[in-house]
Amino acid sequence: MELLAPAGGESSAIAALDAGADAIYLGLRAFSARKEAENFEGAALARTATYAHLLGAKVYVALNTLIKDSELEDFFASARLAWDMGADAILVQDLFLGRELKRRYPEIVLHLSTQAGCCNVYGAELAKRCGFSRVVLARETPLSDMAAISKVIETEAFVQGALCSSFSGQCYLSSFAGGNSGNRGRCKQPCRKKYRIDRKGCEAEAYALSVSDLSVGPRIAELIEAGVVSLKIEGRMRRPEYVAAAVKYYRALLDGQDAREAFRALMRAYNRGDYTEGLAFGQKKDFLSRMVQGHIGEPIGTVSFRHGMPVCRTSYVAERGDGLKILRGGREVGAAVFKEACEGGYLLSSRVRLMEGDEVRLTTSVSSNAAALVPVKFRNIRIAARFFAGETPKFSCEGFSFAGEEPLSPARTAPLTAEEIAACLQKTDGLPFAVSVQAETDGVFLPKSALNALRRDLYAALVAHLCPPRDPLPVREVVYPAPMPVIGRQRAVIGETRPREGIFIWKPRDYATSPPPGECFLYLPPLFTSRDEEAVKSLIVRCGGIYTDGAYGILLAEKYGVKLFAGTGFQLSNRVSVAAIGEFARYFALSKEISRAEQDALAAENAFALTEGDVRVMDLGYCVFSRTCGDCDRRAFYRMTDEDGRVFPLHRYSISGMVCRFEVYNCATLKTERGKCSPLIDESAKEARGDRTTRGHSERSVL
Predict the structure, then answer these.
(1) What is the DSSP letter of 232?
(2) What CA–CA distance (Å, rounded) separates 579 from 96?
(3) Number of other residues whose CB lies within 10 A of the CB of residue 566
(4) SS3 238
(5) Cβ(119)–Cβ(139) under 8 Å?
(6) What's the CATH code of the domain at 246?
(7) Are residue 102 and residue 232 in the same domain, yes or no?
(8) CATH code for position 355
(9) Angle at CA 466, nearest 5°, toward 465 and 468?
(10) Pick from 448, 466, 484: which residue ends a domain?
């Protein structure tokens, strides 16, 4: 079982590896889905890969943003660089671009990013056909489907860290509402802002879409039983102390140790919403963190008053530099600090007026942070050293021999001792070695500066022996497929009612209803589970075609012998992927985040572009009302209003049984001029539209 940790920069990478991670994942400065992380350039990646490999750990490099036509060669160059610098696998979002990368360089190991939204066996099998060795499962994947996917291909699942509100790879809220694309690593997290919803009990502003941080904890045993081979911690934007604390917690669980203290240290490092087990095990009441958005730490006591002074009754031993937050009724009201010790706890100081019963939370612990960064994983090496007069100094270690250049001279005074040699060699110059030394000497003379230089040369040679550099991958020139000629002009409409003309994509609010007469494409959402398939398989056959926003649709259509309309969720943004989708789909839509000029450059027969109507900006695989079904009015649409007064239609639908899912639509209706592609019109939220209109990204791409 692999424990996989995030590395936003070198310090986090070292912290994760020292804490016991079996692998780390990181991004380069370009094409990283965490653009604002420190990220890595070539030399830093090489250093980090060497450090990891010395510990027997692996390094995975994420090149998992969407790639435009103009960036294709830079993408392939970045993949070559990452591999040459020691990457053990490359994470890619675009299946077809991954297929081309594997065709060019069969040596490269490919992992499919969670941004690709793999949540069923069809997506897994397609990834395998495209040359991927592993899929990072969508966070919404049910446990039963994880087991089925794990029989097809190696799987990796998130166990700790922040959760996206929207289905993996299908969020456009930051893009359309703020001009910063999450698909380019620039998400501004509008899901973490306050909204009010016109439903009883939700009228007040709250963090209506903010999901609690994931913490699977002991339930990793169920993931392991399902066949998951890599347990992934999210957090490339988090501090090294958090990364180390998370690794040590899961390391303790995997090793069968008492993990209670490690969990407390993790809560102190970062904790949003007191954690949730996520959706793999079914939605629980703690899934959303409606009252608290940021770090709330570990609960350590409550406020009481002594002689009119606020006191925190706690057994925690405070230190200078510790930080506190105060919660009242579950909501954050301010910060506080320990003032001085008193009987049974500490006097508190705060700028806010504290009240009896306020909850005290520890958000910064100096001792916990320091303990988290104490290394616990080393590579044990034994060095035999021979220092005899008339000979060059000689070393042997790990089947490797090394000798100095100059013969040693006998000492006239203060001969070099075996203990001094051993003490010098135990200084590892930042390398993850635990060194034991057997030194022999007949009393030679060697200045300390020369001995230190000899040690540095020894370790440099040893590292080169243990982690030899790779032969660089060759630059292979490839002629990209030319855009196909545009033939004719069609029209496609997504909605519940058949249009007077054009291709009809039927999108029911309840998939238990019968389809309209005549041939159409059945709309299927990005999150599509085995339970969903069982519920709609008769509809698939009756409709004769499917429109999907997930790549799983390719093999699903193949299984049922129906036509495929590859939707905007395929994120087609370059000619390699456009040429590839033509092998599988009858029709396809280009990414809705590229400009009209970029769409025109990719125009092809049966290519569509979203030009009019509603813009779906989020797919939610959960109930935003925390499944309070007894009080639900079960309306089709709600109004979700942000702090700036913008209204986003919130659509409820049901695909399998009584379990509802939701979609969020943009606050403005799309209305653009048509380009060379055939127009795709979305009427999914027609009855809930406001007066605002937008040209979307037709004039300026956000990719």
Answers:
(1) E
(2) 9
(3) 28
(4) coil
(5) no
(6) 3.20.20.70
(7) yes
(8) 2.40.30
(9) 65
(10) 466
Judge whether residue 660 has pLDDT over 70: yes
**The two three-digit tokens of residue 516, written as one number:** 């309209």
Supply φ then ψ for residue 665, to 5 degrees.
-110, 155
- For residues 519 and 459, state if they share a domain: no
Q: Is 113 found in the same domain as 26?
A: yes
Query: pLDDT band at residue 701, thresholds of 50, 70 and 90?
Result: confident
Q: What angle do CA 22, 377, 44 make, to 5 degrees?
A: 65
Q: What is the pTM of this model?
A: 0.95
What length is written for the chain?
703
Tell me how far apart the alpha carbons of residues 291 and 675 are, in angstroms, rounded to a whole number.
45
Count CA atoms within 13 Å of residue 295 on its CB side: 16
Pairing of strands 563-566, 587-589: parallel
3: which strand partners? 231
Domain match, 120 and 42 both: yes
Above pLDDT 70, what percent of the chain? 99
Do 236 and 105 share a structural domain?
yes
pLDDT in tens, 384-410: 999 999 999 999 998 999 999 999 999
Collect all residues with Cβ–Cβ distance below 8 Å to 86 and sequence separation of at least 6: 45, 46, 49, 50, 53, 59, 467, 469, 470
Question: Is there a single domain that holds both residue 81 and residue 149?
Answer: yes
Neighbour count for residue 249 (Cβ, 10 Å):
27
Asked if 42 and 81 count as a contact pair (C-beta separation under 8 A), the reply is yes
Write a three-state SS string for 144-192: HHHHHHHCCCEEEEEEEECCCCCCCCCCCHHHHHHCCCHHHCCCCCHHH
pLDDT tens by residue, 167-176: 988 999 999 9
Q: For every residue of 674-702, which 3-state class applies, written as one string?
A: CCCCEEEEECCCHHHCCCCEECCCCCCCC
Give the C-alpha separation, 192 to 190, whole Å.
Answer: 5
Q: Mark which of 466, 482, 506 sits at the end of a domain.
A: 466
Q: How many domains is the chain partitioned into structurally?
A: 4
> Which has the closest alpha carbon to 554: 564, 539, 568, 567?
564
Q: Strand pairing of 659-665 and 647-656?
A: antiparallel
Q: How far apart are CA 147 and CA 151, in angstroms?
A: 7
**Integer Cα distance of 425 and 419 in angstroms:** 10
100 and 228 in a common domain: yes
Longest pairwise C-alpha distance within the chain = 104
User: Are 366 and 385 in the same domain?
Assistant: no
Residue 34 belongs to a domain: yes
State how far the Cα of 360 lies from the Cα of 571, in Å rounded to an integer.
46
3-state secondary structure of 44: helix
User: Mind listing the pLDDT tens digit for each residue in 534-570?
Assistant: 999 999 999 999 999 999 999 999 999 999 999 999 9
Is 202 part of any domain?
no
| Amino acid, single-letter form, for residue 689 | R
Which of 449, 439, 424 lies closest to 387, judged by CA? 439
For residue 413, what are the contacts with CB-CB under 8 A and spacing of at least 6?
none
**Residue 472 is assigned to a structural domain of this protein:** no
> 113 near 33, Cβ under 8 Å?
yes
Q: What range does the domain containing 398 cover?
A: 379-466
- In percent, how much of the chain has pLDDT > 90? 88
Of residues 664, 557, 548, 676, the one with CA closest to residue 606 = 676
Mean pLDDT computed over 53-60: 98
479 belongs to a structural domain: no
